[in-house]
Amino acid sequence: MNKSYRGAHMRGLKSFWILLALPVYAVAADDLVRKCENLYQLTDGDYAIEPGIFRQASDETAAHCQVNGVIDGTIRVRVGLPAEGWTGRLMYLAPGGLAGVIGDTTSLLDEGYVMATTDSGHDGPNDPSFYRDDNAKINFGFRANHLSAVLAKRVAAAFYGREVERAYLWGCSKGGHGALMEALRYPDDFDGIIAGAPAVDLVTGLLASSIENARRQRANPLTLRDVELIEANTRRACDLLDGLADGLIGDPRKCSIDRLELDKLECGPGEVDECLTAGQIETVRGIYTGITNESGEVVVPGVYPGAELGGDFELWVTGPVLFLEGTANELTGDVAVNILHRQPGFDLDEFDTANDLDQLAEAAVAVHLPPPDFSRFIDSGGKLIIYNGWHDMPCRAKALENFYAETVHLNGPETVDGFMRVFMVPGMVHCFGGPGAWAADYLQAIVDWVEHDEVPDRIIAQHPGDYTFLDSQTAIGAAGGSWAEAILEAGAETGANQFTRPLCPYPQWAKYDGSGDPDDAVNFECVDE
Fold it and tell me: H/E element holding 47?
């Protein structure tokens, strides 16, 4: 760059920043629109930024500036900037699933948040073929969230003339995985992180369990009617273990395979209804147990019994699923095929789910979580809330328990207690849905912890209504960062009994005290027993 050009360039940037530094409330409407449009001037060799689009307030959305950008020619980013009332906060929503689409950037605008998200650098929500592109794989694994967060902060600073004061991240499933990845790889990006169902073994155990469960289902398939029988059996065996007959298992760790007495479900001679074949019982047993090696050691944990009709069995095991060809287990097998595409002659049917996990971890090392040494995140002052359904099919609670144990081992129990809380949710399946009280305001909890040092040792959750995972997704719609409010409103319209329960920090669980209304969280205490 020659000196004359550089001087002109710097003078232009100075004028641009003076314009953008004007407080939003002090400029006329036309100036606000112009400030939004002028954000394209942030374009440089790393970022391509479109002119911002100013959107007037509607019944659904506060007035805001919407900005689209592209990083490295592949990573799409969107930022929503409220026209007034900005609190200095940024909420970044990490995409879930296989990403490939732009999510919510509007639901928290009226609460004063700048919102941002990304597609993770590829198109298509259910297409795992991006794993064959090393650049796309790295973007999906960790790079897209980091670079998008950096850009979102830059856009906000330009629009408002002041820096982001507090940055938060929220994601569930792969979004929760991305949240942990941010805390471990880029600990200075966010002050507070909410990681829902964080898929701690995303490219190893999650894939292996899906492949193995798909094999079990092909050999001895279950139907949704069979799942009804299975859930009824779980309630019979384990509902009262927490001292309350409410259809929920307060602490599923107490609900062992032996207690279920699955063999008693086997059909007798001539029986075909209200029973299972011996093969079907082995399918169920395998889903609960997980994957074992030759010595009988569990190398990939299974799913805790309970909430079988919450939607995860339907989505992952039995089908049908309208938006998928087959089930989620079968789609996940395709993920493994794409991850290992460079392995000569790879055959998914021959993949050893007990002994070949290292192949997946090595081929997708960019997506595989590093060891949970959070020392840099702790040094940055960051706070972390993790939540997970006890009965989550893909993001199995036992895998998170193992992750938690390793975190304590690497960081020390007192250190962990100072920056992280894990909430296991009874009666919840994957991210949303199930018979339990699972609609909770994690956002307020993390804000209070980060900004007011109020430690979330008890979060009150509500049962929004009888929603499965897929029902919940439909009811929540585009609510994004305000999904708890959206699902509670939807449930209230159905007249649902929206009982409450406390969510207790793991390893504690909520026990009924034996008196008072069992629908009221006040009558439960967090215990270690």
Answer: strand 47-49
pLDDT digits (tens, 9 = 90+) for 170-218: 999 999 999 999 999 999 999 999 999 999 999 999 999 999 999 999 9
Within the chain, all domains assigned CATH 3.40.50 are found at 3-203
- Cβ atoms of residues 239 and 247 within 8 Å: yes
Three-state DSSP state, 215: helix
519-525: long-range contacts, CB 8 A cutoff, minimum separation 24: 521/437, 521/460, 521/461
Sign of CA dihedral 224, 308, 319, 264: negative
pLDDT tens-digit map of 91-129: 999 999 999 999 999 999 999 999 999 999 999 888 999
Task: Specify the fold of 3-203.
Answer: Rossmann fold (3.40.50)
Helix (H, G, I), strand (E, B) or coil at 113: strand
CA atoms within 13 A on the CB side of 140: 29
Assigned token pair, 520: 């009221």
Mean pLDDT value of segment 266-282? 96
Neighbours of 427 (CB within 10 A): 25
φ, ψ for residue 85 (rounded to 5)? 80, 20
Please tell me the distance from the alpha carbon of residue 27 to that of residue 4, in angstroms, as a whole number: 33
Q: Which amino acid is at 456?
A: P
Burial class (CB in 10 A: 0-12, 13-18, 19+), 370: exposed
Chain CA centroid to CA 214, Å: 23
With a cut of 70, say whether residue 390 has pLDDT above it.
Answer: yes
